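Re: your question from the hallway

Yes, I did run it. Sequences:
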Amino acid sequence: MCCSETHVRVRALTELALAALASMPLAAAPPLRGTGDLGIVIEREAGSVVLVETTGGTRLGRIEGLGDLSHASAVFSPDARYAFVFGRDGGLSKLDLLEARLVRRVVQAGNSIGGAISADGELIAVSNYEPGGVRVFDAATLEPIAELAADYGGAAERSRVVGLVDAPGRRFVFSLYEAGEIRVADFRDPMAPLVDRHPGIGRLPYDGMLLGNGRYYLAGLYGEDALALLDLWESRPAPRTVLAGYRRGAPPLPVYKMPHLEGCAVAGGYVFLPAVGEHAVLVADARTWREVARIPLGGQPVFAVARPDEREVWVNFALPQNDLVQVIDVARLEVSRELRPGRAILHLEFTPRAAAVWMSARDDDRVVIHDPATLERTGQIPVDSPSGIFFTARAHRIGM
Amino acid sequence: MCCSETHVRVRALTELALAALASMPLAAAPPLRGTGDLGIVIEREAGSVVLVETTGGTRLGRIEGLGDLSHASAVFSPDARYAFVFGRDGGLSKLDLLEARLVRRVVQAGNSIGGAISADGELIAVSNYEPGGVRVFDAATLEPIAELAADYGGAAERSRVVGLVDAPGRRFVFSLYEAGEIRVADFRDPMAPLVDRHPGIGRLPYDGMLLGNGRYYLAGLYGEDALALLDLWESRPAPRTVLAGYRRGAPPLPVYKMPHLEGCAVAGGYVFLPAVGEHAVLVADARTWREVARIPLGGQPVFAVARPDEREVWVNFALPQNDLVQVIDVARLEVSRELRPGRAILHLEFTPRAAAVWMSARDDDRVVIHDPATLERTGQIPVDSPSGIFFTARAHRIGM
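Structure:
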């Protein structure tokens, strides 16, 4: 009896232990944590991203196998748990930031540039060069939902699509490069999207962005000395030409490299626009779209980024001044401060309430963290040839 | 031998089971989830909050024991995991939204009204009526760090403090009711805060708020027909009087209840200000601070809330029209739509990219969820006498 009783107890305890083990999380299960302070840094060469958190300024992990990440960009799910990374090779990757893993990757086109997520987090749209158009996916599964071919002119012609952004009301807005057209696609019914076409906006729109919390869609024109503007607040929006002659007869844009308009900043009621081919930033009134200033800079600007309180706009530069960052005082419309935080500063991102600014120093293989008030370095993180930096607070902004 | 061997095995298995149990999370351990879509709804009567998520529009739990939650407000940690709730009774409560529990509650004053969190998430400031001043706490522990007495005039006098907000650069801005003063406290060194005083702003500031992403601090004046404005972009900010005469000789504000200015909205370059004592909202140009319109409404407005894309401003009302919500078209500056979503609509909050609007219907004991585009109801959640609704996206906004 002693032994059989004991065996019963042994069995019961074994079952208890096994049950306990079965209900245990895996050894590597991540700890419970908030996701509001997470971010990713693109490692272009390696085709990977480094996962970071901004509260302590630390590196949490790396997620590999994302393909060609030149000009890669990212958007986030509304719960700030998942990142969607758009690669140059048509790859669309869904990352779980809590588990630091690649959930799924699909190669959805031959050549693509950027994408967007709908406000409800249900749809991912990607703008494609080849085949030219927009493909829309279920954000949960990455299964395809819809395709909008960028057909124009003759039926056989398809345009490259650029400057794709989300707009309120489950819409996506984008530009057709060859067609010279802006389109607004309403995905309230994702099976039957309604597309408004706005042709004749000017030649060769090369990029587009949403300004003013979703009111204005601004497209840069490769083939004209002007920009195209669409006011999405109008019930029947009609594109108009703004800032005509802003290049002041400068030579045509260099052909070897498509510029990007995403480097525009809005601050203090002004739009700050890197002046292509000039060592200057153009300042326009965000209400009238008239030029109000042209601020001389120490090089050819790449990104103009507003500090979240809009008191300053920070600018980085193309070679050979790509170790320089200049700070524009928005109240005085002049450069007030500058710093040289590292070699090849490719991108910068502020934490959402401007407690810190993170900058990619590609040729130093690190991201440096500075206090925007004092310009002092407060931290750094090793990253292999870092480029774009994306924090999850973007999940809550319109037109990313 | 059989039995002793068995006993050894029993002991080993018991230890295994206990070790497994010890390393197990509690049975109720929450699943891994993002925190970007979380929120809380205040249950004023019950002294509790209901925890919600906006992706699916569901209720996740309730956290009780928070004391007197009349006029309660909340701010969030930068990682969007913790909420800090400011009660009317001087209570400051820290909630863990992932574990749905009260982490700590301190009663830090006899009577208080609102508070703020620094951009780095390290400091919590509370504005107190009794004793009049600001107390600052370590956000991690809720241990006291500093106290700013609202002394003025004679050394023995202490003013009530209202309208406390965070500003960039680890500053807090607040108003002194009896003293008629705005103060800006710089907590770069939390042990030795620097306080700038701006006396003479006008009689009896009753509330204050930050506009324009942290540029303007606007204080409502109980004792004058005007508002006080401080431009924090200036190196030596000087308060000025704006919108003098905006009440058009209306009778003095009712004495029985302090109004609140937090109901102001900024959209499309305008400030929308509930006109106290009138059935109207006042519209001022956010650059010149001149009145540009006065929009007639169906009742006495309480909160004017901008849809995140600024295309509309939604307004709720005091009794007897407190079942009404009117929608102002910001482009046309007129009421375009209205709805009656329930009984006693006390508060409304948009999801950060305007996919949904949540409204507290106090006398229906529920929060209703509507599609802002179609006005259709898309969901509802049972809540006991709901009042304020606060989503974690606030963690990333300046001046909350």
